[in-house]
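2 proteins. here.
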Amino acid sequence: MSIVLDGTTGITTPDVSVTAQSSDIVTSGNIEAVNATLSGGVYVGGTAAANLLDDYEEGTWTVYAYDAASGGTAAATTTTGSYTKIGNIVRMWLQLTNIDTTGMSAGNYMFISLPFATNSISSVGQAVLNNTSYNGRTNPYAYVPASYSRCRLQVQAESTTIDIVEVGWLTSGTTDIYVNMTYEV
């Protein structure tokens, strides 16, 4: 497929500007573009509202760990968080290394900030915790209750019992936490 302007095939300048268009683009081949910007969205697989992709974003956020009861925030050597948001789905990854729990209360639950609050559906993700005291507990994971902007870390205590990770379980200055999760917003 080629574009014809004023009877000439091809484009000799790098920019083409269309200010008004009364009909859709129709082609039997592929349409190729570089750095196309859409002011609305793009329909994929049909024109129903459910097929409209109108949000795509990649970014980072300031990750912090804290205990909700006292509001104490932990310092960490590395606080990295990155995400990709496509429509209402967020795929995120975070890392906190050498967490210093000074100023936090040992018996309080540990929470970690997320880039976006979840919708009305709870989510579960993978979590790795280094240098912590599970006290016989296993299988750490991240859990986000519905409509929350933070996740909590949980472990399995017995066959059916779930415990939420407490600040006192972390070895201050050496604990590392990694979370990988996909959830809806």
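next one coming up
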Amino acid sequence: MDLRKYTDDDFNVLNSWITDADLLFQFAGTAWTFPLTRKQMQDYQALHPDRQFYIAHHDHQQPFAFGEIIIGDINTPRLGRLLVGEKESRGKGLGLHFVNMLVKECKRLFSCHTVYLYVFEDNIAGLRCYQKAGFEFDNDKKINFTLGEKSRTALIMKRLLA
């Protein structure tokens, strides 16, 4: 498995993974609206040039995951917008490998000692994956997200690095 930076050429693959508004909200929060467009991605990147999207793939072949390393909103890197793309690929440990690759990239880029992420409290598969990757809940810290009439609570998790 390899990790590389997202390029505009990856948009069609990413967009094919996002099958409905609920999935987009689960993985992207309120940042984007369904249907996702190339312009939304480009506008987001222009607004946040210090944040970097990543793609995971098997041996330079078809991508299988998308994620973001966010800096600037807290004093340490945070993982965001994590998605194992194809529904058939989920639940097979690929998310765990992807998260670990992103954590390693955070450590390489920022020499940090802590990495954070937010996860919706009803995202049971995500919670399990992040706990397997060494993330723990950051006390009882929570953030509420609202999109239209839908409101969801995200838990804050952190991983301490050696």
